Amino acid sequence: MARDQRDYFYRKAKEHGYRARSAYKLQQINQRFHLIQKGDKILDLGAAPGGWLQVAKEISLGTVVGVDLEGIKPIDGVTTIVADITKEETLKKIYQALDGPADVVICDAAPNLTGHWTLDHSRSIDLSRSALAVAKKVLKPGGNFLVKVFQGDTFREYLFEAKEEFRVARSHSPAASRKESAEMYVVGLGLLKAPVKVGDEIDLDIVETGKSGDGLAFVEGFKVFVPGAKKGEIVRAKITDVRPNYAIGDLK
């Protein structure tokens, strides 16, 4: 009997109508990290055959879009796009299908394996970086990200790159992953999508006072709180912290 037929999650997926055993990985990850909420707009990169699309739709009941180089058999309430996620024109198709920024971007894609681990790991990292690049462009501020990465020499480097972009980023292996598998998932919570970054020194026009009494300015519509600043002042501040929806600056 083939290994897949002996596999518990493979049999369970068949029984419950999921297209891949990986559906349970997304369920388990979401139960732990609460990536997807009701009403969320979800983008699934490398979505074929559609197991994650099924789960994403079940959880969110919102707009779900899947992109893959291969065609995906239709799923009720899900939009699919046949395209290359590394191409700029694919982003335009994604924006149109989502009708706005995504709340969550997920990616369970894997490169074509050669059996040479160093090459396979390198290709996995390249694919994961492409997924991260798309996520940074289509996610709303504070949005969440999930991607599969093969473990190897540059895994920690990739995890660090994710930590630079999200409020929280960590690696995780769900129970549904095979014990012998080298796959790992990187979870990014709260995209830090802001027009300022830590260390920036900028002049700010304090236009309001926040609930805690801090001065409040706006940079391209993004909130910056400055403790000690008063409404009506123009101050110079150094950005000390950046969160999904606001930043904090110290008076200079």
Kindly summarize this structure in a few lines.
The protein is an alpha/beta fold. The chain has seven helices and 13 strands. A seven-stranded mixed sheet has the order 3-2-1-4-5-7-6, with helices on both faces. Strands 8-12-13-11-10-9 form a six-stranded mixed sheet, with no helix packed on it.
Give a written overview of the molecule.
With 252 residues, the protein is an alpha/beta fold. The chain has 2 domains: 3-191, Vaccinia Virus protein VP39 (Rossmann fold), CATH 3.40.50; 201-251, Beta Barrel (OB fold (Dihydrolipoamide Acetyltransferase, E2P)). Helices cover 31% and strands 32% of the residues. The protein is built from 7 helices and 13 strands. It has helices spanning 3-6, 8-16, 23-33, 51-60, 88-98, 117-138, 155-165; strands spanning 42-45, 64-68, 78-82, 102-107, 139-150, 166-172, 183-191, 201-205, 208-209, 215-219, 222-226, 234-242, 246-251. The strands form 2 sheets. A 7-stranded mixed sheet has the order 3-2-1-4-5-7-6, sandwiched between helices. Strands 8-12-13-11-10-9 form a 6-stranded mixed sheet, with no helix packed on it. The longest helix is centred in the middle third of the chain and has 22 residues, at 117-138. The protein is elongated and about 65 Å long. The N and C termini lie far apart (70 Å). The model has no long low-confidence stretch (mean pLDDT 89).
